């Protein structure tokens, strides 16, 4: 597969991250006249962006260490974290039947990911 540039993912990630940051700041300044920085929800969004950035950086390292195919499969386990987080942190209620299907699905996802990534 031809490559347009000869650089690692880490070298390409910083300019992308910087562009997204500058774009978000300019969007905030022009659309809200900077008031978005004064709101509590704005700071929560900034925190989410930082966490997303860290996750993306970790994915680049994982792809370099384990290979893209294995790293991608492992990242798809976020469904498991989101589902459990929704049930525990957001108190999403499930009927016993729904809970049984949900847990079965999570076990299948983890099992399939394990088989795909490590075997």
UniProtKB/TrEMBL annotation:
Protein biosynthesis keyword on record: no
Transmembrane segment boundaries: 12-30, 42-62, 68-89, 101-118
Keyword Transmembrane helix tagged: yes
InterPro entries the record matches: EmrE-like, Sugar_transport
GO molecular function terms attached to this record: carbohydrate transmembrane transporter activity
Cell compartment(s), UniProt: Cell membrane
GO cellular component, as recorded: plasma membrane
Topology relative to the membrane: Multi-pass membrane protein
Superkingdom: Bacteria
UniProt keyword annotations, A-Z: Membrane, Sugar transport, Transmembrane, Transmembrane helix, Transport
Cited Gene3D superfamilies: 1.10.3730.20
Family classification: Belongs to the GRP transporter (TC 2.A.7.5) family.
Protein name: Glucose uptake protein
Provenance organism: Companilactobacillus versmoldensis DSM 14857 = KCTC 3814
